[in-house]
């Protein structure tokens, strides 16, 4: 995958100006690497991020950013780049809200309002297998509705391969105000 805005589908989709980005994964195909790429894009452009509902300790994200060679810049107090509100695992917000989907939806509505008022992005990771039953489908349907860009990681339909771990489906609702879906493979480089 090229670094920034190259010819690949994921870079094209991430550069589309999407304000709300939903990243869906499952146990067989984790998509945490997409969050890492979005963080790298934000920090590379003198941006910043606010982490909410972290599924990993903060030191994990620090190690990932160091591995990706994102160095700390001298902050002037002014955010010149892209600001990202990152929710790494929406199910943790649901736990914090004591199972109240309505409280989570109210909070998400507030975050979506912030994206337009503060010119920032909201990135949400959800695990599709948690919300795949009919009882829990409401939150996933709402997340898909508010998202400008949906990036879904899934296992390969042909089975495992040595260098490809799964496939990403990208639904971009921003492009020409019409929905566009494309699929690409991902794996170790």
TrEMBL record:
InterPro entries: ELP6, P-loop_NTPase. One of its GO terms (cellular component) is elongator holoenzyme complex. GO terms for biological process: tRNA wobble uridine modification. It comes from the Eukaryota. Pathway: tRNA modification; 5-methoxycarbonylmethyl-2-thiouridine-tRNA biosynthesis. PANTHER family: ELONGATOR COMPLEX PROTEIN 6 (PTHR16184). Belongs to the ELP6 family. This is Elongator complex protein 6. It comes from Eleusine coracana subsp. coracana.
């Amino acid at each position: 995958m090229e670094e920034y805005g190259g010819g690949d589908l994921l870079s094209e989709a991430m550069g589309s100006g999407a304000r709300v980005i939903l990243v869906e994964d499952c146990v067989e195909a984790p998509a945490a690497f997409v969050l890492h790429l979005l963080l790298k894009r934000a920090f590379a452009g003198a941006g910043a991020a606010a982490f909410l509902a972290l599924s990993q300790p903060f030191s994990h994200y620090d190690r990932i950013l160091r591995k990706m060679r994102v160095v700390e810049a001298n902050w002037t107090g002014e955010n010149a780049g892209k600001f990202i509100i990152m929710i790494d695992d929406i199910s943790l917000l649901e736990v914090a809200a004591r199972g109240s989907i309505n409280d989570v939806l109210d909070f998400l509505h507030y975050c979506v309002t912030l994206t337009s008022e503060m010119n920032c992005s909201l990135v949400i990771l959800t695990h599709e297998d948690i919300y795949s039953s009919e009882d829990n489908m409401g939150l996933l349907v709402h997340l898909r509705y508010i998202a400008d860009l949906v990036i879904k990681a899934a296992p390969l339909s042909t089975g495992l391969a040595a260098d490809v771990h799964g496939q990403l489906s990208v639904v971009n609702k921003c492009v020409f105000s019409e929905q566009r879906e494309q699929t690409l493979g991902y794996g170790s480089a």
